[in-house]
Inverse folding.
């Protein structure tokens, strides 16, 4: 989560080059996944960390794809069948064009209909966010709408990645301009809208002035360059003013960008630990960040993956007061594996933890101050109380 219509993450097809946190749900037609550098210092492995590396047999996966390709069949579909039987909740397989679209989404561009989707806590696919001015917005779709059918086919319990692929329409060269029929459920009402896919661009970071000297920095996804934009926003904010960092609806993105954002607000130190096949590693912020400004972070159930990683670091290290509602709880780590035929499998290899050792996966992050519909005004009040709104 992911220019819209899609779930994001830097996906390098070279095995071991990148680790990705494929967040669970936000895929719009241009996903936003999360990537971990496979380096950094090792840290002791907590005794309660689960080793999930054996969830999928990689040799079996490659063999299935290779045999299918040799028989003139789809290696991607063969690999998908292996992953679906494995029990890897976040495992997914992408064909060559889908992977290309993932990479484009990290630059803030994608082909789609302008909506992000996610799996709700009751297991259904729903609209997480709608891009203003996009085809979905113009057709009246809203966050919270249930997505029931695509081109007449039931969505059901399909993987979020499969839903995203259907919304995107396949190869980007031919998808723009094509139509997709989307069946929507809102309360007891249901209807179908035909949307036309277009090439869209997103701005992951927006900045606006609040009352007094306070500044609101809204980050919708951690795509390429977003960390530097956060750093610039912090450094150019009015002297003595506080920062309201809005991560609501942020489905994640590149972990390197989330770490860069943390570096803007921390003076070095631990951001998160993660395990790869049971071996523990750590991610650190760069020294020199602004630690003097009052900081409040806005979060909600749409705050996921890399956005949760950043939130956990700022909360655990006492750098920020968090306001809103509990985050989604996506804290597993995926690694890309190239397959015969050009497809790529994202397989779960471990989990990440906050600096204090908290597991995010399945738990989320509970805010310091709980707030509902009026979370932003409440956050501004908290910021003012910290001396950052004057």
């Amino acid at each position: 989560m992911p220019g819209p219509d899609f779930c994001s993450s830097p996906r390098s097809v070279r095995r071991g080059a990148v680790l990705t946190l494929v967040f669970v749900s936000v895929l719009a037609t241009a996903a936003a996944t999360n990537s971990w550098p496979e380096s950094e210092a090792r840290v002791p492995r907590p005794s309660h960390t689960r080793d999930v590396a054996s969830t999928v047999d990689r040799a079996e996966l490659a063999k299935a794809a290779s045999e299918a390709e040799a028989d003139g069949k789809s290696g991607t579909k063969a690999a998908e069948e292996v992953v679906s039987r494995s029990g890897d909740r976040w495992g997914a397989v992408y064909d060559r064009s889908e992977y290309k679209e993932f990479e484009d989404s990290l630059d803030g561009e994608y082909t789609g209909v302008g909506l992000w989707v996610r799996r709700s806590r009751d297991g259904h696919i729903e609209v997480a966010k709608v891009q203003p001015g996009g085809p979905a917005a113009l057709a009246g779709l809203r966050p919270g709408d249930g997505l029931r059918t695509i081109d007449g086919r039931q969505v059901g319990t399909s993987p979020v990645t499969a839903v995203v692929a259907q919304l995107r329409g396949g190869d980007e060269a031919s998808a723009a301009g094509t139509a997709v029929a989307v069946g929507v459920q809102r309360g007891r009402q249901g209807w179908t809208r035909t949307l036309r896919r277009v090439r869209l661009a997103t701005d992951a970071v927006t900045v606006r002035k609040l009352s007094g000297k306070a500044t609101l920095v809204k980050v919708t996804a951690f795509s390429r360059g977003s960390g530097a934009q956060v750093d610039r926003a912090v450094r150019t904010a009015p002297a003595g003013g506080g920062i309201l960092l809005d991560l609501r609806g942020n489905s994640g993105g590149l972990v390197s960008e989330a770490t860069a954002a943390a570096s803007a607000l921390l003076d070095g130190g631990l951001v998160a630990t993660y395990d790869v096949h049971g071996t523990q590693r750590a991610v650190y912020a760069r020294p020199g960040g602004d630690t003097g400004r009052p900081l409040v972070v806005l979060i909600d159930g749409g705050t996921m993956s890399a956005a949760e990683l950043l939130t956990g670091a700022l909360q655990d290290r006492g750098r920020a007061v968090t306001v809103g509602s509990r985050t989604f709880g996506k804290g597993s780590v995926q690694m890309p594996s190239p397959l015969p035929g050009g497809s790529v499998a994202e397989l779960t290899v471990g989990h990440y933890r906050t600096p204090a050792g908290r597991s995010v996966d399945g738990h989320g992050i509970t805010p310091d101050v709980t707030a509902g519909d009026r979370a932003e005004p409440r956050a501004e009040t908290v910021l003012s109380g910290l001396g950052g709104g004057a």
The CA atoms of residues 150 and 166 lie 7 Å apart. The domain at 7-201 is CATH 2.30.42.10 (Pdz3 Domain).
